[in-house]
From TrEMBL:
It holds the Pfam family His_Phos_1. Signal peptide: none annotated. The active site is at 9 (tele-phosphohistidine intermediate), 82 (proton donor/acceptor). It comes from Carboxydocella sporoproducens DSM 16521. InterPro entries: His_Pase_superF_clade-1 (IPR013078), His_PPase_superfam (IPR029033), PG/BPGM_mutase_AS (IPR001345), PGM_Phosphatase (IPR050275). Substrate binds at residues 8-15, 58. This is Probable phosphoglycerate mutase.
Length: 214
């Protein structure tokens, strides 16, 4: 069995502003850096043997803080990156609502039925690459504990697969910045979820971000 600590990156200014990031490379906010340090401290005594991250800097810098506690490098895995939000990337939530109201309604009510307009991804594409990435990591580290830093939509889509749920249930999972999830890859190839959206390490550093922008 491989235990994967699957965490979301620290807060960015765009998270706070309600702006769609997608695969644009935004930086951690001052609060996000504090959250990353709290996450690193929370994981410091665990027997982590490897650290992986999305290529986006908000995830990589969060992973790097934790990796330093264990004197480990951070390995980039492309499949862990955030959903490509197409032409929504860079727009504020109110701008998306004004310009893409019909598509936004589908995204919020039936997310499995839309491909992001303007060359973006659908959730099945996100799920397929996330599952492939996490299975690759799990098989590379049998019997070990590994830290993986990823993103809101990517983690939600993976959970739908791991728990045998349709992607229509995507919005049922909450993922706060630097939350800790723990999943176990079992010998028969199934996944077991043992911790979900744990933010106890954050204390007062948790902020209730509107979930409409990812």
């Amino acid at each position: 069995m491989t235990r994967i600590i699957l965490a979301r990156h620290g807060e960015t200014n765009w998270n706070r502003e309600g702006r769609y990031q997608g695969q644009l490379d935004t930086e951690l906010s001052p609060l996000g850096w504090q959250q990353a340090e709290r996450l690193a401290e929370a994981l410091a005594k665990l027997p982590i043997t490897a650290v992986y991250s999305s290529p986006l800097s908000r995830a990589y810098e969060t992973a790097k803080k934790a990796a330093e506690k264990h004197q480990l490098p951070v390995e980039i895995v492309e499949g862990l990156t955030e959903i490509h939000h197409g032409c929504w990337q860079g727009l504020y939530a109110h701008e998306v609502k004004e310009q893409y109201g019909v598509e936004l309604e589908i995204w919020q009510s039936a997310p499995h039925q839309i491909t992001m307009p303007g060359g973006g991804e659908c959730l099945k594409q996100v799920q397929d690459r996330a599952v492939a990435a996490l299975e690759m990591i799990a098989k590379r580290h049998p019997g070990e504990t590994v830290l993986v830093l990823s993103h809101d939509a990517t983690i939600r889509a993976f959970f739908c697969y791991a728990l045998g749920m349709d992607l229509a249930n995507f919005w049922l999972f909450r993922q706060d910045n630097t939350c800790i999830n723990v999943v176990e890859y079992l010998p028969d190839g199934r996944w077991r979820l043992s911790k979900l959206n744990d933010t106890c390490h954050l204390g007062s550093l948790i902020w209730d971000v509107d979930q409409k922008a990812l």
